[in-house]
Amino acid sequence: MGKNTISTSFSELGLSAELCNAVSELGYETPTPIQEKAIPIILMSRDVMGSAQTGTGKTASFTLPMLDILNSGIAKARMPRSLILAPTRELAAQVSESFEKFSVNHKLSMALLIGGVSFSDQESALEKGVDVLIATPGRLLDHIERGKVLLQDVKILVIDEADRMLDMGFIPDVDRIVSLLPKIRQTLFFSATLSDEIHKIGARFVLNPKIVEVARVAQTASTITQYICNTNPKSKQDQLRKLLKEEPINNAVIFCNRKKDISSLVKALKVHKFNVAALHGDMTQSAKLAALKAFKNGDTQYLIASDVAARGLDIPSVSHVFNYDIPSNAEDYVHRIGRTGRAGRTGRAFTLVANSDDKKYLSAIEQLISTTIPEHLAGTSTKNIDELESLPKEIAHVGKRKKIKEGKKIGVTIEPQNAQKTKVQSEKRPPAWTGGNNFGDPETIPEFLR
Fold first, then answer.
1. In this structure, are residues 408 and 415 in contact, taking their beta carbons and an 8 Å threshold?
2. Where are the alpha helices (DSSP H) in 298-354?
3. What is Dmax (Cα atoms) for the chain?
4. What are 406-435's pLDDT values in tens digits?
5. Residue 375 neighbours by CB under 8 Å, 6+ apart
6. Domains recognised in the chain with CATH numbers
7. Fewer Cβ atoms within 10 A, N terminus or C terminus of the chain?
8. d(Cα 286, Cα 309) in Å, to the nearest integer?
């Protein structure tokens, strides 16, 4: 390709023409803030201690310069030239995918060492010699103990998601692995947060690092519009189905707190003809990868997941995130909704609040992000509002009156412009009926009300 195909912004960071062309062909035009700050420093062979919010392009901030640095040199059998440690299989696979898509113009070899995959296949890759070794700490130690991998030729070490490593108790394993590496190397240490504890841990691995910080974990991306939906435990599934029908969804991740809730929600949504798949920790590695592939390819529209996927999904086109269960950890909320609104795109996030515990967790989330999340009212999706705003003034006014009538049916108040505020009471229902009165789905209407 000619030079006119090179992305000027990426080339200014010092990346090679071949790499800039690969980036441009994938549709990336300008680097994200973390890429803009980290790439030039990494290319200068400096150690880096970086903190970046999820969804900011952090993975590419180290994979891109590593490709150029490693482009010259030959890998020896069982002696990788670089090592990337990630806390989970999903994150390691994500980094592997990043290398594969960006390395089309580079002749570099790579191996992925994660659990749930045959040892023999991984050993075969190591025997051939690899330029880039991506691994979880546990599986790498298994191979080291078998004598199948030697680390004395590693020139670049990347420790990714260090805060997650700490949470999962992997820091002792990382210490053991790093003790087997050469003292003279380049180390790139990344974390979602750079707390005092993370700083102390990082200081053991890096030498005179350049600190690169882009955004605190307490911040949610400005590209994400957030809502809460007040409901109750019995009506949660009904509320979710209405949102899925109302919203202009490309694809969406729906989060549950427990694996058994994922299974029941998958079954319930399939009954109503929604194209859904599950992703949780009890699935085999091959089943997880198949579910992720189907979601990325567009074969599955809705992925119902546990927090195992919160930091492992890197799909820029995800338009919506739904917290079917609100997370008990406020920071998990930030990571969850970070699956949408990525790489400059806009996204929408909805959280169902069904009981007193949910309200307590919501309060902690709002305190963390320093934002009061507005309530989403039924019938006010972007699709409906955009259609209404595009109508002539007289017709739009009639449309708003219609919305008010619909609002009365479901016990909410929707006021037209300049209208006097009134209290709308829920309609009375027979004493024997103890269910909800939101009958958007005909199947939910009891026999005596049909």
1. no
2. 330-337
3. 79
4. 443 343 333 444 444 334 344 444 444 444
5. 227, 228, 229, 230
6. 3-213 (3.40.50.300), 224-379 (3.40.50.300)
7. C
8. 15
